[in-house]
C-alpha cells in the first residue's frame, strides 16, 4: 500500500489507529469512529495490514472496547503521514516565531 493511494479519510484513520496502538496500548475508542472508518477497518483487516477486534467485556472501559495492531508496513506509512501532516500544519500556522519577526 502506498500513502499516495490512500484517501484523506484513510490517512486520518491511519493516524488515529497509530495513536491508539502507540499511546493507548492498542485500545481503540469505538465512539471516535464513524461508519466509513469501520468500512476501512474491515477492508484493512481483510487485507491483513492491520489486526482489529473486540476486547473481552470484563476489560472494557471508557478508553475503548476494541483493539488494533498495525503491521510494520502500516507503522511506516503512519510515520510518513504524521511527518507530512506536521509539515502541512507548520506551513499554515497562524503565528510567527521570534526568529521570523527578527527577519
Describe the structure.
This protein has one domain: Orthogonal Bundle (Arc Repressor Mutant, subunit A), CATH 1.10.10. Strands 1-3-2 form a three-stranded antiparallel sheet. The longest helix has 20 residues. It is built from four helices and three strands, in the order H-E-H-E-E-H-H. The N and C termini lie far apart (42 Å).
Write the layout of secondary structure elements.
Elements: H1 8-23, E1 27-28, H2 35-46, E2 50-54, E3 66-70, H3 72-91, H4 98-102
Antiparallel strand pairs: 1-3, 2-3
Helix pairs in contact: 1-3
Count all strands and give the number: 3
Order of helices and strands: HEHEEHH
Give the C-alpha Rg: 17 Å
Quickly name the level 1 CATH class: Mainly Alpha
Amino-to-carboxy terminus distance:
42 Å
Helix share bin = 40-55%
Proportion of beta-strand residues: 5-15%
Major beta sheet summary? 3 strands, antiparallel
Mean pLDDT: 94
SS content category:
mainly alpha
Indicate the low-confidence ranges by residue numbers.
none
Q: Treating each run of at least 4 consecutive H or I residues as one helix, how many helices?
A: 4
The best one-word shape is: globular
Second-tier CATH architecture: Orthogonal Bundle
Strand order of the largest sheet: 1-3-2
The CATH topology annotation reads as Arc Repressor Mutant, subunit A
Count structural domains. Answer: 1
Amino acid at each position: 500500500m502506498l500513502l499516495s493511494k490512500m484517501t484523506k479519510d484513510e490517512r486520518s484513520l491511519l493516524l488515529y489507529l497509530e495513536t491508539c496502538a502507540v499511546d493507548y496500548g492498542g485500545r481503540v475508542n469505538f465512539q471516535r469512529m464513524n461508519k466509513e472508518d469501520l468500512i476501512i477497518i474491515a477492508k484493512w483487516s481483510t487485507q491483513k495490514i492491520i489486526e482489529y477486534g473486540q476486547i473481552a467485556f470484563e476489560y472494557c472501559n471508557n478508553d475503548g472496547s476494541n483493539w488494533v495492531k498495525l503491521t510494520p508496513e502500516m507503522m511506516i506509512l503512519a510515520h510518513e503521514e504524521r511527518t507530512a501532516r506536521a509539515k502541512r500544519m507548520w506551513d499554515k500556522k497562524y503565528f510567527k516565531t521570534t526568529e521570523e519577526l527578527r527577519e
